[in-house]
TrEMBL record:
Record-linked PROSITE patterns: RESPONSE_REGULATORY (PS50110)
Pfam families: Response_reg
Keywords noted in UniProt: Phosphoprotein
SMART domains in alphabetical order: REC
Response regulatory domain: residues covered: 6-122
Name of this chain's protein: Response regulator
PANTHER family assigned to the protein according to its UniProt record, in alphabetical order: HYBRID SIGNAL TRANSDUCTION HISTIDINE KINASE C, TWO-COMPONENT HISTIDINE KINASE
Length: 128
């Protein structure tokens, strides 16, 4: 089932982008990458991913704006959003959840933990 699930990784840091792309492909997902929010919005409209791993602090359009757009667009609102951010204060996390995030993972994070959380989200998608 994972083969059909599309994951979009959005981060302006090339190292994080490459490692997450590798990790998600290794797990069997179809992976797309975007280096900023604008590029992410283009890919989201075109590919309609199942899950978005989304950084918050990015040039042009930040992660909060991407999340707001996805959750307020009827044909996209089902997409699961996982914020990955160095913004790790309680208030940052509350804001992320308030605008529609399904998960908020503060950086730095354990890749093993992230993969298990993404797989759990994917399982929820596959069984619904």
């Amino acid at each position: 089932m994972k083969q059909q699930l599309k994951v979009l990784v959005v981060d302006d840091e090339p190292g994080i982008l490459m490692s997450l792309e590798f990790l998600m492909k290794k797990e069997g997902y179809q992976v797309f990458i975007a280096r900023d929010g604008e590029e992410a919005l283009d890919i989201i409209e075109r590919e309609i991913p199942s899950i978005i791993l989304l950084d918050i602090m990015m040039p042009n359009v930040d992660g909060y704006e991407v999340c707001r757009f996805v959750k307020s667009t009827l044909k996209l609102s089902h997409i699961k959003i996982v914020f990955l951010s160095a913004k790790n204060k309680e208030s940052d996390m509350e804001k992320g959840y308030a605008i529609g995030a399904d998960l908020y993972v503060p950086k730095p994070f354990s890749t093993r933990t992230l993969v298990s959380k993404v797989n759990a989200l994917a399982l929820g998608i596959a069984t619904s």
